[in-house]
Amino acid sequence: xxxxxxxxxxxxxxxxxxxxxxxxxxxxxxxxxxxxxxxxxxxxxxxxxxxxxxxxxxxxxxxxxxxxxxxxxxxxxxxxxxxxxxxxxxxxxxxx
Length: 96
Fold this sequence. Notes:
Number of helices: 1
Structural class: mainly beta
CATH class: Mainly Beta
Shape: globular
């Protein structure tokens, strides 16, 4: 799930997933952080979800995915769209 707070120049985007205990450690990766899993690890919340907030420049489209500690990559079902990448899989799209 994506939650956005957008101003003229910046957007605070909160990425959240249900049932994080099942997936283990999860990070959000994308072109906004060099696809680096250590840049935005998601934190487990008391309600069983996990989330992380990222501030991004407004007025752009970003490509992203989630990656688990075991190397499983997956897209966001509530993304603004999907796009094929050079690995013959899809990336989620986020417009802010």
